[in-house]
Amino acid sequence: MSVSKQELIKALAEKLRPMLRKPLWAEFVRTGMHKERPPTDADWWFMRGASILLKVQKLQPIGVSKLRRHYGGRKNRGVAPEHVYKGSGSIARKLLQQLESVGLLKQETRAGHKGRVLTPKSQSLISQTIKELDKAKPKEKAEAKPEKTEAKQEKAVAKLEKPEAKHEKAEAKQEASKQKLAAPEKLSFSEAKKAEAKQEKAEAKQEANKEATPTTVAKQGPKGVGIKKQEPKAVEVKKEDEKVEEKKDEVKKEEMKKEVSVASGAGEE
Known about the structure:
Helix content is 64%, strand content 8%. It has helices at 5-16, 44-59, 64-70, 89-102, 120-182, 189-212, 233-268; strands at 73-75, 83-85, 105-110, 113-118, 219-220, 226-227. The strands form three sheets. The protein has a two-stranded antiparallel sheet with strand order 1-2. It has a two-stranded antiparallel sheet with strand order 3-4. Helix 1 (5-16) packs across helix 2 and helix 1 packs across helix 5.
């Protein structure tokens, strides 16, 4: 079947509307113990009648008990575990009776099973609705095709226009660059400040690099005399430390000599 069941049930419900009688209590009743509220759709009675017709077509012969099982469901019982309940038997029974009175169903026994089966009238009704839905589909496709062709044409035109647009953008950029070269724009106060700050940072970096580089290379004077540059402060500090340590060593040696001379004089006495 090329038609979906939802579409078929809706179409059948529209055809069953003049045949079936919706009771007054249908607006307030629930369709089973597992349901918390009545149906929200106002035409649910005719939809259920169409659904029962299709169920009978599939599972004939069928009765109220089987339909109750098919239209049942799980009930939410809060903290307790869920339990499966059957659907309403009154709704199924009354709809079967109405469909039988209209001539769409009849009671029959097949292979020892008693229940309702479809009549030739209901079979022709279902087949006609399927054909009508099938005929309506190609029209929708035919209407959709021109839209697709128009979209494709628009895309092709857009592709052709893209190179022209790119060329125009490139020309506009060239003109803007020429204008900038011819008459440079004046910088605003904030931009000028930013440029000055960048220049100051660059100069500070250059000075720091100069201080970090060693300056022990000797320059040649005008007469070829070598003139040493001043060494950095760290090197001068190291040299002064070395001199201080040498002086300490000399002082220690002199003290040792004095002690030795004093000890030798005491031994002679």
